């Protein structure tokens, strides 16, 4: 008697996603899970991570609880990346605060810099140090990589860093077959804004994208693997195109007037 044995000769791809407990990170995790990625979900809220793990399939995905504003947690996740092989790293974790620069606690803004830049650089370094052809690193930035935002000065500054950092890495690794990109969504309908001291409704509706739209753009960029800097959404690309016809001073004045951080 001969028994038929089904063997999957294609190993599942593996991805690590930071900020995976909600919003854009969660939606990206859902999309990658549908494409048969085995995921490591990183965030600081263990309860939320376990809930996401249950939703996506506990047997196929793991969680890693870490607060990436803390050096010891950055080092721990970096070690994990050094000790394990991944096909994809998505640096999605990010934070920011709305308000006038000197009205916000300095420590809060330094934590934004630690998460949005230091953690992102450290994890990128760990991943790329052992990346091979076919691997990909995508850093989630923001439309603010292209524009200042009075009322969120430090946050906007960190996102400019992410965009330029990612472009430079794209060039350094493109001939090795390793894709690096900065993915820049506009304002998205997530709890990021309420956590930052405002609400999505504070933005003009024409600039707000749904989480699903952002994830669609991410998956398209990952599949195409062509541009080092990707602007999500036609309306965001149209707005930036319009800015080209204005002086920098005029653009900053516009952004200041629509900024949730400067509204009374």
Overall outline: globular
| CATH H-tier superfamily | NAD(P)-binding Rossmann-like Domain
Helix content: 40-55%
- Reported CATH architecture: 3-Layer(aba) Sandwich
Query: What is the third-level CATH name, the topology?
Result: Rossmann fold
Per CATH, the class reads Alpha Beta
In terms of DSSP E residues, the strand content is 5-15%
Strand order of the largest sheet: 3-2-1-4-5-6-9
Radius of gyration: 19 Å
Q: Please tell me the overall pLDDT.
A: 88
Q: What's the number of structural domains?
A: 1
Largest sheet properties: 7 strands, parallel
Question: Termini distance?
Answer: 79 Å
Structural class: alpha/beta
SSE order and pairing:
Elements: E1 14-18, H1 23-34, E2 38-43, H2 46-56, E3 62-65, H3 71-83, E4 88-91, H4 106-128, E5 136-140, H5 153-173, E6 179-184, E7 187-188, H6 192-195, E8 208-209, H7 211-224, E9 229-231, H8 234-243, H9 248-258
Parallel strand pairs: 1-2, 1-4, 2-3, 4-5, 5-6, 6-9, 7-8
Helix pairs in contact: 1-7, 3-4, 4-5
Notable features of this structure?
264 residues; alpha/beta; Rossmann fold; seven-stranded parallel sheet; two-stranded parallel ribbon; 45% helix; globular; disordered N terminus; SDR_fam; NAD(P)-bd_dom_sf; Short-chain dehydrogenase; oxidoreductase activity
């Amino acid at each position: 008697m001969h028994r038929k044995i089904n063997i999957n000769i294609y190993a599942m791809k593996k991805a690590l996603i930071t900020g995976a407990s909600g919003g854009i990170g969660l939606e990206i995790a859902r999309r990658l899970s549908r494409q048969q990625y085995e995921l490591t979900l990183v965030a600081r809220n263990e309860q939320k991570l376990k809930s996401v793990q249950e939703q996506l399939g506990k047997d196929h995905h793991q969680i890693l609880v870490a607060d990436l504003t803390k050096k010891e947690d950055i080092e721990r996740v970096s070690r994990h990346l050094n000790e394990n092989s991944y096909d994809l790293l998505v640096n999605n974790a990010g934070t920011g605060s709305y308000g006038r620069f000197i009205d916000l606690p300095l420590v809060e803004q330094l934590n934004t810099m630690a998460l949005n830049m230091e953690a992102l650089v450290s994890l990128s370094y760990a991943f790329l140090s052992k990346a091979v052809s076919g691997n990909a690193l995508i850093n989630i930035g923001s439309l603010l990589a292209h524009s200042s935002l009075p009322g969120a000065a430090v946050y906007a500054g960190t996102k400019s860093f992410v965009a330029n950092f990612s472009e430079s890495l794209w060039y350094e690794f493109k001939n090795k077959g390793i894709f690096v990109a900065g993915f820049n969504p506009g304002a998205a309908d997530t709890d990021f804004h309420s956590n930052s001291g405002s609400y999505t409704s504070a933005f003009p509706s024409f600039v707000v994208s749904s989480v699903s739209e952002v994830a669609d753009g991410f998956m398209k960029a990952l599949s195409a693997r062509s541009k080092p800097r990707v602007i999500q959404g036609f309306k965001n690309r149209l707005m930036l195109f319009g800015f080209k016809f204005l002086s920098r001073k005029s653009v900053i004045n516009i952004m200041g007037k629509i900024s949730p951080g400067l509204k009374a």
